[in-house]
Amino acid sequence: MAFLQTVDLEQRAGAAVLLNKVNLSVERGEIFTVIGPTGAGKTTLLRLINLLDRPSAGDIYFDGEKITGSSGNVVQVRRRMAMVFQKPAVFNSTVYENVAYPLKVRGYHEKTDRTRVYGLLDTIGLGGYAKRKAKTLSGGEAQRVALARAVVSKPDLLLLDEPTANLDPGTVKMIERLVMDFNRERGLTVIMSTHDMQQAQRVAGRVGVLMNGRLVQVGRPGDVFFSPGNARIAGFVGMRNLLKGHIVHSKSGIVVVDVDGRDIEAVSDLPAGTAVEIFIRPEDVVLSKLASDSSARNDLRCIIRSLSSNGPLCTVIVDCGFPLEVLITGKSAVELELSQGQEIYTSFKASAVRVLPSMQG
Amino acid sequence: MQEIWRALVQAVNLIVSLDTEVVQISLRSLYISAASIIIAALFCVPIGSLIHFHDFRGKRVVINVIQTFYSLPTVVVGLLVFLFISRSGPLGGLELLFTPAAIIIGQVILIMPMLTGMTIGALSGVDKTIRDTALSSGAGTAQAIRAILFEARFAVVGVLILGFGRAISEVGAALMLGGNIRGYTRVLTTAISLETQRGDLVLSLALGIILIGIAMVVSVIMNILLQRY
Amino acid sequence: MKTLLINRIRRISIPIVITCLLLGAILTGCAPAAPQPAATENASDQVTTFPIIPGTPRFKIATTTSLYDTGLWNYLEPMFEKKAGVKLDIVYAGTGVALEYGRRGDVDAVVVHDPAAEAKFIADGYGINKRSFAFNHFLIAGPADDPAGIKNLTPEQAFKKIYDAGMLDPNKVKFISRGDNSGTHSKEKLIWQAAGLKYEDVQKSGPWYVEAGKGMGPCLLMASEQGSYILADISTFLAFKSKVNVAPLVEKGDLFLNVYDVIEINPEKVKTAKMLPTAKAFTNWLMSDEVQDLIAGYGVAEYGRPLFNPLKGGGCAEAGCPKLEDYTVQVQ
Asked: Could you tell me which of A132, A123, A120 has the C-alpha nearest to residue A112?
C-alpha cells in the first residue's frame, strides 16, 4: 500500500458531488502535485487527507493505517502531517510565536523550540524577523512563515493547497525551492495542489489531474503534459488549437488528418477513417514571411487576424481555413513586422500535433 | 440644566472628600459587578466557544434562542430569582435573599445569554483559516479554541466590558433581590433609585456620574492590559 | 462525530460541575440551616451566618416608604445595631409588599401603618405582638390656587368636591393616588368610601384620577409637576416641602390619623422566620423612652416641628388613637 492512499474517496455537499471515487496513491518521499482547474476538488481532497473534514464515503490510509472512520485519534494523526493553506494564515502574534505554535501544542521544551525556530527562520530568509508582529508581513513573507510553521514539527507528510497563488514570481520561486529542499533533505513526502501546470512541471515527481472531482490521469509531468488523456485534460495543460477532423491516410506512424479541407501531418498510430481531435501547442508553431524550408512537415499559408502582446510574448491568431493560436516572442513579432491582415506562413512539426480519438462517436 | 452642573460639582466633591458612604457603595457596586462578570464569563466563554467550534444539528436554533434571551426583562428575572431564594421558596434555607450574593445571582443570570451569544459572535469574526491552521498544526480541540479566543481577544474583552457595564447598571433585579439595604446591599444604581425617590435629583445625578466614571476606568484598564499582550 | 462531541461535552462538564459546586459552597456556606422549629425560640439565636459577612447575625425588617423617605431610619438604625449587637437590615416597600415579605418569612418584623391590613395579617396568624410607637396625620395638598375649592373642608367633603370637579374638567382638577397598596393608599380608599363613592368607580372614572404606583416622595414631585391634588402624610410632605410646589389645603379630620405599628412575624406560622427574641427586643426598644424622645425631637430643627409624634406621654388624644397597652406594654 502507498504511504498515503485514498480508496474510493467521495465527498458530497447536498446534491453536489465534490469528489467522486478518488483513488490516490502517494509514495513515501515523493513530491506529488494535484493539478486541476478551480473547483475541481483539490482543496476538498487535501482537507480530507488532513482530517479537517470527514468524507461522505471511502477511506484514507496513512502509513498503512486507516485514518478515516470514527476510531483512531484524529489529533495524533494530524500531528504527523502539516498543511499550508492558499491564503497565508498567521496568528496575531510574533513571527516566532507563529512558527513555534506546533511545538507549543505538542508541549515541547523551550530550549528545543528556540534553536529549531531560529534555524528555520534563517532557512526561509526571515532571520531577524522573530520579534516582528506577523500581521505586518507581506503575503509572501507570511506564506513563508506558514511554510516554516508547517515543517517545524518535522511532520511525515506536508500538504500544500495552492500555496503560491496570488504571490509575486520571486516569492513563488523561493517557496518552490524551499519545498523541494525540505523534500530532499528531510525525506518529507509532499502533496501539493496547483492550477499552474508549469509549477507542477518544475516541482513535482508525479502529477495527478483532478477534474470535476475525478482523478482522471496520473503520471510524470512530461507524460501528462505531452500526452494528455483526453481533450479536457489537454485543454487544461495548455493545449490549445483543438481541431476536429478525420484521418485520411496512415503510414508508419505518420497520419494525414483532414481538417476543414486542409491536410495536416501528425504522429499517431490510429487507423485511417478515425474521427479525431488534434491539438497543437501555440508555442510549437513558427511564423515566417516565406515558405519555410525547415524540417517541419506542416507549412500553411494563413492570414493574421489579430495580435496581442502579453508581457514578453505575443499571441497571434491566424486564419488558415481554421483558426490557429500562435505564441511567439515579442521580439520575433517586431522583426517579422507583423500586422493584421498580413499574409504569413505558419509551420509546425508533425510531432507537435497531438492526436486523440474523437470524444463523440 | 443647572442640576447637571451642580451634580458634576457634587460628584467631584464626593470623590475628592472620599465620602465614606459613597465610597462604600461604589466599592460594593464594583465588587458585585466584577464577581458577576467573572462567574458568568467562567461559564459563558467556554460554552460559547464550544458552540462556535462544533457544527451540530440545531446549532442555528441554539444561537437564536440565546439571542432571544438578550432581552430578558430584568424585573422578570428578579422576580423569578426572588421566588426561588425567598425563605419560603425552594432555596430558602440558603438565606440568600437581601444579600449581595442574591444580586450576583440575578446579574449572572441576566448577562449570561449576552455573554454567550456575543462570545460566539466574537469568535465568528475570526477567519476560518485560523481554526484550520491550529488544527492542522496539531492542536487538540481545547488548544484550537484557545488559539481562536486569542485571535479574537479584542472582541472578547469588548464583550466582557459590555457584560460588566450591563451588570453595574442593573437596577430592577438589584433592588428586588438585594433590598437596597444601607451598608449591606446598597449599590450605586439602587442608591440612585432611592435618591430619585427622595427627590434629591442632584445627588442621583452625582452618583450616576460616579457610576459612569467607574465603568470608564474599568474599560480603560482592560484595554491597556489588552495592548500589553 | 456525535459520539466525539458527547465525549467532549462530558470532559468539559465535569470541571464545570465542580466549579459550580465550589462556587455554590463559597456563596452559600457549607451548611444550609433547616428552618428552626418554634420550640427553640428560647435557645440562642441560631441564624445561618452568611459566609461573605461572617459573624454578626442579621435582623431584617420591612418598613413603609413614608418612614424611610424622611430619613428617620438613618437615625434609628445605628442605635439599635449597637444596642442589640445585630446588623439591622431595613428593606423598604409599600405596606402591601412589606406584609408579603412578612408572610414569606423574608423579614423578621414589619413596620407599617394600615390598620385593616394589619388586622387581617394578625388574624391569619402571620403577625404577633403588634405595638404602636408613633403617629402623625395625613393631609390633602394641592395647587395653591385650589381650583376645586376644597380648603378647610373635611377630608370626605374635599374628596367629593375633587371628584366632581375632576369629572367636569380633568384638565383643571387632577388627583394623584399612590396606587400601590401602601398604607397611604389604603387610607385614601377609606376616605373615598367615607365620601360615599365606591373605590372601583373612582379608579375607572376618568383621566383626572392618576394612579402613580410610586413612593410618597416621587408622588409629591409628580403632583407638583402636574398641579394635582394628593393625599400625603405630614412627615414626607414637610421633608419635601422645599422641593415641591403644593400647598396644604385640608389638614383636619378624624380620618387623617396615621398610626405606625410594629408587628413581629410569628415563627409558628411562618416556619422560616427567625430571631424572635431580637424582634421582641426591637419592639420594646421602639416603645422605649430613648426612642420616643428621639422621635419627639426629630425634624424640629429643620422644619420647626417634629415629623413624627411619639405615643408615650399620651401625645395622641383623638378618637382612634391606640390604647395605652398598645404602646406601653413590653413584649415578653
From this structure: A120
pTM of the model: 0.76
The backbone torsions φ and ψ at residue A214, rounded to the nearest 5 degrees and listed phi first, read: -115, 140
* Cα distance between residue B35 and residue A324, in whole Å: 78
- Give C3's contacts in chain A (Cβ within 8 Å): 70
Phi, psi of C285 (to 5 degrees): -65, -40
DSSP-derived letter for residue C331 is P
* Closest of A165, B85, B93, A313 to residue C47, by C-alpha: B93
CA-based torsion, C158, C164, C170, C176: positive or negative: positive
**What residues 262-281 of chain C have any CB closer than 8 A to a CB of chain B?**
270, 272-273
Q: CA nearest A53 in B: which residue?
A: B132
Give per-residue burial for B90-121: e unless 16+ CB within 10 Å, then b. ebbbbbbbbbbbbbbbbbbbbbbbbbbbbbbb
For chain C, 332 residues long, the average pLDDT of each consecutive 10-residue run is 51 59 48 31 34 64 83 87 89 88 91 92 92 91 91 91 90 90 90 92 90 86 92 89 88 89 89 81 90 88 86 80 81 78
ipTM of model over 0.85: no
Q: Is B93 on the interface with C (CB under 8 A)?
A: yes
Flag whether residue B150 sits within 8 Å of chain A, measured between CB atoms. yes
Give chain B's length. 229
B95–C33 C-beta distance less than 8 A: yes
C-alpha grid cell for residue C285? Answer: 426598644
Query: From B88, which residue of chain C is nearest by alpha-carbon distance?
Result: C104
Tell me, yes or no, if B164 comes closer than 8 A to chain C by beta carbon: no
- Give me C75's grid cell: 437615625
Residue B68 CA to residue B76 CA, distance in Å, equals: 15
Q: Say how many C-beta atoms besides its own lie within 10 A of residue A112's C-beta.
A: 11
List the one residue out of C209, C153, C148, C205 whose CA is nearest residue C177. Answer: C209
Given C5, C65, C90, which is nearest B182 (Cβ)?
C90
Determine the Cα–Cα distance for residues C332 and C328; give it in Å rounded to an integer: 12
Q: How far is CA A96 from CA A185, A319, B76, B97, in A?
A: 23, 59, 51, 53
E strand intervals along C271-329 = 309-310
Closest C-alpha among A48, A47, A40, A39 to residue A8: A48
pLDDT tens digits, one per residue of B161-212: 999 999 999 999 999 999 999 888 999 999 998 888 777 888 888 899 899 9
